[in-house]
Write a sequence for this structure.
């Protein structure tokens, strides 16, 4: 191991004290596109290459960046969001994931103070305060010098209780530009500059309609991650960044994460719930899968793109993803489409989110034509050029279903470029057909301010939920699967 790597291990040694100290930083920006994802990914890989155990986190409802952070750190990333998780649970989840690590790297989202309203509720800054985490601001310094100091000074004093511990200047033009920027920010704003990244011709990880390309669709991902880490190693003072994380104050120890208890009746071997994880559908919070296991389910990983046969199932979970980029493969696998449709008609409990909902429809309309899907719902979705739903969601459960109790107020999020091309039926119309179980209090949903298409024991929505923010969901799913198991002996 290089001498610098050994020095890092001494600096970040995970003794009993550090396991309750939780060295941590939050990387934030002024807006989307500031470069914080690039820096976060590169820093995670750079630290991991030095022999450190890195716990990666992503603020907000984001599966794509979290997947790249997981690859970069070589450990599963965890999403933290003040809207999806109550404060106590948020701190508990962070500490559970951070405890085995030498350092935690938390990537913010949007601008530092941007939340769901004018007060900045649920912003990255609020997350920083809840975790007592120092913030390093990634600032796009294109065509500015002294103004950068004014921006940094404003961020440092804008809200009380925020520790702005450093700045990383991005897209700098040359050595003279970097020198003047650094002097201005440090002397006039009083915040240390921890690195200056040059302008780059292109991001080693391509982007498309929902952000970075899926890691599952990019063969050169390891080379790209190492290339980004090389840039971070060259242009950032990585030891000072790590020292900033180490200097974070020790937080109050949180209570254990309130995972669901095992559902009565599961016995030693609980019901089998399959979940699809392939290039088409892979948007799952790890906590959702873990909550199902804690509630008693035996999880089986499946694919809609493979010809491999499926085991007998007591439930099926279809997450979100990119059915639009895998539409040809999904359409070609008639065996899987027929099987899922037959399972739904047989009464199998099926829970689907966003991309999973798109797969359960009759078809998916793309710019070059329609592709047949599973045909569970008599609805067609159409891929659009602009987002059709984006942001936090609140919904009221207005129909009985196997997964969410009647009257429950759900919190979640949506981010979809597809829309229902044929309107789903409103509640109360044709009791034999699908009905919409959720009334949207915030967000778009499927149609006419509603979401949650329900047909038999199949429930599908554009709304994504987090199991720790909807603690009823995993036990309800397992109970529904137990009832199904009882019917098949």
């Amino acid at each position: 191991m290089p001498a610098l790597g050994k020095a890092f291990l001494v600096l970040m040694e995970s003794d009993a004290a550090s396991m309750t100290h939780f060295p941590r930083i939050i990387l934030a920006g002024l807006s989307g596109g500031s470069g914080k994802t690039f820096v976060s990914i590169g820093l995670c890989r750079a630290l991991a290459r030095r022999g450190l155990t890195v716990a990666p986190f992503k603020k907000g409802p984001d599966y794509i960046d979290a997947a790249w952070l997981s690859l970069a750190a070589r450990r599963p990333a965890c999403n933290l969001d003040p809207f999806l998780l109550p404060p106590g649970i948020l701190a508990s989840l962070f500490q559970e994931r951070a405890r085995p690590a030498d350092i935690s790297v938390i990537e913010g989202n949007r601008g530092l103070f941007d939340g769901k309203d004018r007060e900045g509720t649920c912003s990255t800054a609020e997350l920083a305060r809840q975790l007592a985490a120092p913030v390093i601001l990634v600032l796009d310094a294109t065509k500015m010098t002294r103004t950068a100091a004014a921006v940094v000074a404003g961020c440092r004093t804008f809200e009380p209780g925020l520790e702005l511990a450093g700045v990383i200047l991005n897209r700098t033009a040359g050595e003279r530009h970097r020198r003047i920027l650094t002097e201005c920010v440090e002397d006039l704003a009083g915040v240390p500059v921890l690195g200056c990244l040059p302008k780059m011709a292109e991001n080693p990880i391509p982007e498309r309609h929902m952000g970075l390309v899926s890691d599952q669709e990019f063969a050169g991902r390891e080379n790209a991650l190492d290339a980004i880490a090389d840039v971070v190693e060259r242009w950032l003072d990585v030891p000072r960044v790590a020292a900033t994380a180490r200097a974070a104050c020790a937080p109050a120890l949180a209570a254990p994460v309130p995972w669901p208890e095992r559902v009565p009746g599961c016995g030693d071997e609980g019901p089998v719930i399959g979940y699809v994880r392939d290039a088409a559908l892979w948007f799952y919070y790890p906590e959702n899968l873990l909550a199902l296991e804690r509630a008693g389910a035996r999880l089986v990983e499946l694919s809609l793109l493979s010809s491999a046969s499926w085991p007998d199932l007591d439930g099926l979970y279809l997450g979100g993803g990119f059915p639009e980029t895998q539409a040809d493969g999904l359409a070609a696998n008639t065996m899987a489409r027929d099987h899922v449709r037959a399972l739904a008609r047989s009464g199998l409990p099926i829970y689907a989110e966003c991309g999973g909902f798109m797969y359960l429809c009759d078809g998916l309309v793309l710019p070059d034509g329609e592709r047949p899907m599973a045909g569970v719902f008599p609805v067609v979705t159409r891929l659009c050029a602009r987002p059709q739903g984006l942001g936090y969601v609140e919904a009221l459960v207005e129909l009985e279903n196997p997964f969410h109790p009647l009257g429950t107020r759900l919190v979640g999020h949506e981010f979809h470029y597809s829309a229902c091309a044929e309107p789903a039926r409103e509640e109360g119309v044709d009791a034999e057909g699908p009905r919409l179980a959720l009334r949207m209090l915030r967000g778009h949903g499927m149609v006419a301010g509603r979401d949650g298409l329900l047909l038999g024991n199949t429930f599908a929505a554009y709304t994504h939920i987090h199991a720790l923010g909807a603690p009823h969901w995993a036990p309800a799913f397992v109970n529904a699967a137990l009832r199904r198991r009882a019917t098949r002996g």
Notes: Residues 23 and 273 are 37 Å apart (CA to CA). The chain is about 35% helix and 25% strand. The radius of gyration is 23 Å.
